[in-house]
Amino acid sequence: MVALTWDQVGERLYETGVEKGVLYIPNGSGVYDTGFAWNGLTAVTEAPSGAEATPLYADNIKYLNLTSAEEFGATIEAYTYPEEFGQCDGTSTPQPGVLLGQQGRSTFGLSYKTALGNDLIGTDYGYKLHLVYGCLAAPSEKAYATVNDSPEAITFSWEVSTTPAAVTGGKPTSVITIDSTTADPTDLAALELLLYGEVATEPSLPTPDEVVAIFTP
């Protein structure tokens, strides 16, 4: 038996930042086969909910706890957004430059990257890829204000709910996280090639089963 130790050199880990946001629009079959770079992404706040225990009593004691289904939501904040996100934000464009609000909202997928750091090499330690499925954006306020001696850019914000995608051998999920410090580098590169595309390949968001298959020996 080895005694526990804390805060050893190289083990002081942290996570920070958000970058390389990609919006994925599903086709008529629900396949996320087209991706668009999301410039100006400033924050993604993950907000799981549910998984609450409901106690049951019998024989004058707590008999067991039943747990409700867990749901995944998020808040996306950005200085701007891809033009293609308009259809996800209730906007249609009948003519170039003409935007109709309060229209139907389509679902979308999202991926983004966060940095992993430690006390030795900082944020070069690694990173995580976050893949989110079945997103639906709720209407959000846009606060326009006069320009003054302390100018600020408008920050857009969307509350997002999700519908989980099927996973073979597991419960449906809305989010997958890949850790570069433990994942196989070759498999990770193959996944990033799909997510970000290349000259002859459109960026796409693979299904959870396809993601698992990439990392399966």
Question: What does this protein structure show overall?
Answer:
With 217 residues, the chain is mainly beta. It is built from 2 helices and 12 strands; from the N terminus they run E-E-E-E-E-E-E-E-E-E-E-E-H-H. Strands 1, 2, 3, 6, 9, 10, 11 and 12 form an 8-stranded antiparallel β-sheet that branches. A two-stranded antiparallel ribbon has the order 4-5. A two-stranded antiparallel ribbon has the order 7-8. The model has no long low-confidence stretch (mean pLDDT 93).
**Based on CA inertia axes, which overall geometry fits?**
globular
Give the helix level as a range of percent: under 10%
The average pLDDT score comes to 93
* Total strand segments: 12
- Count the helices. How many? 2
Largest sheet: 8 strands, antiparallel
Strand content: 35-45%
* End-to-end separation: 33 Å
- Could you spell the SSE succession in H and E letters? EEEEEEEEEEEEHH
Helix-strand makeup class: mainly beta
Short description:
The chain is mainly beta.
Which features would summarize this protein structure in a list?
single chain; two-stranded antiparallel ribbon; 9% helix; 217 residues; mainly beta
List the helices and strands and how they pair.
Blueprint: E1 14-25, E2 34-38, E3 41-50, E4 53-58, E5 61-67, E6 70-78, E7 92-95, E8 98-100, E9 108-118, E10 122-137, E11 156-162, E12 175-179, H1 185-196, H2 208-214
Antiparallel strand pairs: 1-2, 1-9, 3-6, 4-5, 6-11, 7-8, 9-10, 10-11, 10-12
